[in-house]
Amino acid sequence: MDVAAVLEIKPALTQFLHTFDDCMGRVTNRRHLETYVSGQLSDLDRKSIEPIADAAGVSSRTLQEFLSLLRWDEEAARDRVQQRVAGEHADPHSVGVIDEGSFHKQGKETACVQKQYCGSRGKLENCVVSVHLGYVAEDFHTLLDGALFLPEETWHQDRQRCRAAGIPDDVVYRPKWQMALGQVRRALANGVRFGWFTFDAYYGGTPAFLRELEALGQNFVAQIPVRFYGWTQPPEILHRDHARDKNVGGRRRKPRLKVRNAKVGQVRNVLKHSPLLRKVPWVKYRVKDGQKGPMVVEAKRIPFWIKDEEGLPSRPYSLLVVRSVLQPNEVKFFLSNASESTPTEVLLLVAYSRWRIERLFEDTKTELGLDHFEVRKYLSIQRHLILTCISHLFLSEFCLKHRGKKPGPDRLPSAQRHTSFGAPVEPRWTMLPTPGRVHQHPTETHPATQHACETQALPADATEITRNRRKIERLPHLSLAKIAV
Predict the structure, then answer these.
(1) 197 vs 96, 115, 353, CA distance in Å?
(2) pLDDT tens sequence across 102-129
(3) What is the pTM of this model?
(4) Which residues contact 334 (CB under 8 A, 6 or more apart)?
(5) Which residues partner with 256 through β-bridges?
C-alpha cells in the first residue's frame, strides 16, 4: 500500500460511515461510531473500549454507553451492511458460508457464557459462542451477520439470570441451525443473492436445515458427519394399506418402506461396503494452492438418498467422497442438492471455499479485535458483533480497491507460468487473501437452467501423483472459467 492509499483512508472511512447516519440517529452517536470503527482499524494492540477511547482522547464511559445505553438501531445497521454488499458486490457465483465463532471468557456474568466447546481453543472451555454468515465473491469476502447463541439449560431456562445479563424475554433458545437459517432469510430479504452455500458437518448433518435451505431455492455443498444416514439406491415405498397396519384409530395411511429393502446405512460404511461406490474410480483434483504447495485430493461421486424424519428416502442428492492424496486415511463426505450435470470440480470448489470463513474470523480477531470485547451485557456484545461487520466491510472494500489485480488467473502455477507456489503475505495488511478467482460464467442454479459442462478429469496417461511437485503441477486445478456456458 502506497502513501496515496494511506492518505485516502480517513476521507474514505468518513464517506463510508455516512451510509449509516440514519441508523445512528443523533450526531453524537455518529461520532461514537467513527471513534469505535477507527479504533478497530487502528494498530492498537488491544481494541477494547478503554484503549480505543484513550487513543481517541474521549471518555471510555461514553463508548460504554454507546454500546449499552444510547439509542441507535443496530439491526438497521446490520441490514445496511447487507444492502451495501447486495448492491456493490453482487456475483452470480457468490458463496454463503455459515460457521460459529467462539470467545474465551472467564467468570459467569457475561451474557450467554458457559462451559462448552470452544473452537478457538479446540476444547471445552468457558466461552461465548456466536453464529455467523459470511459472503464470498471472487477476491472479496466479508461478514454479513453475527448473533450470540443462547444456551438452553444454563440460560434459556433461567430467565432471572437472563434479565440480569440484559437478555430480553423475547430472546429464547434456538438451535444454531435455526439461527443460521434466520440469518440467511434476512440476507435474502435485504437483496443478497447467493449462488451457493457451504457449511460444516453440524449444519450438514441436520436434514431439517438442508430441507429449509433448499426450500429457499439455494444450492449447497454441505460437509456431513460419518454417521449421516441414507441409501445409495432408492428403496421401494408402499403407499397402500395392509391388514396388519390396523390399529385403534383405523388403518395406517402413511407410506412406508418395503420389508425387503436394503437397510439404511451410514456414509462411512458406504465407503467400505458399497459395490456402486467401489466401481467409481478415484479422480484427482488440485483444489487450491497454499504456501506449502498445491492441495490435491481424490474424489468419488454417486447419487444418494437421505433419510428423513419419517424414515423415508428423499429425492436423489450427490454424495461426494473426498480424501487427501498425501493422507488417504483422511476422508470427508459432502452432500449437494445441485443437479447431476453439475461438474464435480464445481462442487469441490464450493466445498473448499469454507476456509474463507476461518480467514474472516482470523482477520476480525487479529486485525479488528472481534474477541477483545470486555463488556458483559447482551446488547453490548451484539452491537460489538455488528460494528465489527461494519469495520470489516470497509476494510474489505478498501483493500480490494487498492491492492490491484492479480498477475494471472488464479495465481496458480502451470507448465507455461513457472511462478512460486503460494503468494507472499505482507505484514499487517493480511486482509483478503487472493484465492482462486471465480469468473463470470454462470454455473448450475437451483432448480432451473442446466448447461452442458466440460469435465476436468486427468488424462488417461497421467502418471500417479506423488510428493514430487512436478507431477502435482500436471493436475487440473478447479476454476469456474473452464465450465462451458
Answers:
(1) 5, 30, 9
(2) 999 888 999 999 999 988 888 899 999 9
(3) 0.79
(4) 204, 221, 222, 223, 224, 319, 320, 322, 347, 351
(5) 238
